[in-house]
Amino acid sequence: MRASAIPVKGGSTGFTLDGEAVRAAALSLDEAERSRAQIRLLSETYPGITMDDAYAIQAEWVRMKQAAGDPIIGWKIGLTSKAMQQALSIDIPDSGVLLQSMDFASGCTIPSCRFIQPRIEAEIAFVTKAPMDDPLLEAILDATEYVAPALEILDTRITRKDPQTGRLRTVYDTISDNAANGGIVMGAPVRDFRGIDLRRVGAICSRDGEVEETGLGAGVLGDPVLSMSWLVQRLAAYGQRIEAGQVVLSGSFIRPIEAPHGSYILGDFGDFGKVDLTFA
User: Structural domain of residue 256, as residue ranges?
Assistant: First the structure.
């Protein structure tokens, strides 16, 4: 039996960084993406960084992208599995923003110069037909135009391990880095989704013909629709919402797959569809 919504833990944590520090951090992320040279952990540069600070850095980086002509097309939800949460010692998901430049067609070839250290995750994408501002699950389904199989391209502008201290990335680094999002590849729309139990939608993900990961939608907070409920509430806390026509990646139900140059990645979701791409 599904819950009606998922409560949001970890509200406002306060700010320790001023506007100048937030902009400096966002500029360093922007330069890392352009140069394809990762920066050190922001949690080392700013030891007192909070979750609010991290989302402020993310928002400033997104504003830079928008100002350069790269509009928002949606959102992504990350850290939805127990394994990934335990790895970062947290008990809540995080979120990031999808930009138009991140949208790739299934079957495409990604230029070798595009990403730094790409990895792949399997997800269910939601595309909206109306604004989503009600966290009740039925309201979320009512606002959904269709769902689709999807692969998320992860990329990190911040190093995974600090070169000076050896410390691993924290959730504050991940959030600041737009939840490590690099791109989205969607399969064909599934419009008759009401009769599908998304918890049981599975994917077999392979690299160069060898199976690397498998998983079920239930790995996403128990139900991808619950993950969407979490995002609706998190965005509301920051005065934002999911708008009509946007796409949302509801969270991965596999561990990330490394995608070095020359990799061919296939996400086989069975009757739900297939998604594939190649890294040049």
Answer: 71-279
